[in-house]
Amino acid sequence: MTAQITIGHDATGKPVEFDIEELLATRLLVQGNSGSGKSHLLRRLLEESAAMVQQVVIDPEGDFVTLAEPFGHVVIDGAAYSPHEIEALARRIREHRASVVLALEGLEVEQQIRCAAQFLGALFDAPRQHWYPALVVVDEAQMFAPAVAGEMAEDTRRLTLSAMTNLMCRGRKRGLAGIVATQRLAKLAKNVAAEASNFLMGRTFLDIDMIRAADLLGMERRQAERIRELERGHFLALGPAISRLPVAVKIGPVQSGHAARSEGLMPMPEAAAGDMEALLMNELSVEAAKAAPPPPPPPAPRPEQLADSIARAEERQAPPLAAATPPPSEIAAQVEAIIAALAAEEGSAFQSASAQFQTFLLRCRQQRLIGPLPDMPAFRRRFAVAGAGLDDLDSAVRARIMELAHGVEDDLLAPFLVIARSAHAGETTVDEDAIARAYGTSSPGRIRRLLEHFEKKGVIVVREEFGGGRTVMVPGMEQVAQS
């Protein structure tokens, strides 16, 4: 089977061919202002190569859904699926070599970007046994690989840039050949555009875009005006899959598309002014009432707002304060019990300090504890004490250990207290698993660096033995722990 398709004809009527096998290895960039014929070009390329290679189209405007009937593409409505379902669909597409159109017109712009990014990421991360060759066409690529952040959220920008960069920079080894089309080269991220070796440049008017297009085509700056003069459906082509020298090509006809679409003028309606006004105004309120969408659901509250809301609701339900309010000593004991229970829970040390603190406040409110509660720093120190088991020690010993821990950072206090307790108990080994749990890590390397940090601060002394053992001492404690 030949890998050549005819994309159009040059000025002499000679066919201009496209080598699809070469395109899979070298990728393609298409640029042209709105109305220059980019979508027509992409449709011609897709139609001519539909029987040769798997095709995946990212379609933000719903222009390519008409490929479904004549060429068998499966249309995926991005608005109808959850993010996990979109990723699962992408994995199945690679496994079964299905040609698809991901239609995104039913989503808001930022949702389109996130949906496409997750879809492309799942295509890229498919198992090695499913790395079949596929053309991946991204229309309006300046949306998905913007040169500047714009108004989208920072996490969305990082997600979509990563997906597009992987497609264009590393996709070839996974069988993915990126084809990106954009209205403005200046708005497209340079590291995405730079990975294409084939170019089809259509009509553009802004100097900055003309100069970049001329540079990519290897033309002199004074020749850039030629790009401004291109007619609709005419492109300058260059690349190993097309031609080694720039060639002007008129794109050939297509089979699919919107049959009812009108590109020129149409006769104006002949209705009289009064009749037209009646058509516009009659029963307008009835139609508006039918078309009015239901009010959107309120946004989900943030965790801290939810906790405050629960607290206020419980306070409204609580009986008025009376003489039966427990004394401060009893409240303090209940607070200590909550902290001890939280510290004893499996995996609690692996949570962030803010998540631990929010859980603590929520439990205090559930028990209707009224009175001043520990702030974040005080809670972290009490949590570390409870996690290390210092509450079981004599108060004098506990005070001495806390005195030695005075210079230790709050986020390192828990593992130091574990070491100090082991030293006080005279244990021959330091339980590194206990240190890891207190530190919230499973990395031996982090534990080793932690001990080195403690030694530099002077709160412990580490002595290496010839036999490979290690002695850890806590200055100020009489006992010695070995590990």
TrEMBL record:
Q: Which InterPro entries match?
A: AAA+_ATPase, ATPase_Atu1862_pred, HerA-like, HerA_central, P-loop_NTPase
**Matching SMART domains:** AAA (SM00382)
AAA+ ATPase domain residues: 24-191
Sorted alphabetically, the keyword list is: ATP-binding, Nucleotide-binding
Q: Which GO terms describe its molecular function?
A: ATP binding
Q: Which residues form the signal peptide?
A: none
Q: Known Pfam families for this protein?
A: DUF87
PANTHER family recorded: HELICASE MJ1565-RELATED
Please state what the protein is called: ATP-binding protein
Upper classification of the organism: Bacteria, Pseudomonadati, Pseudomonadota, Alphaproteobacteria, Sphingomonadales
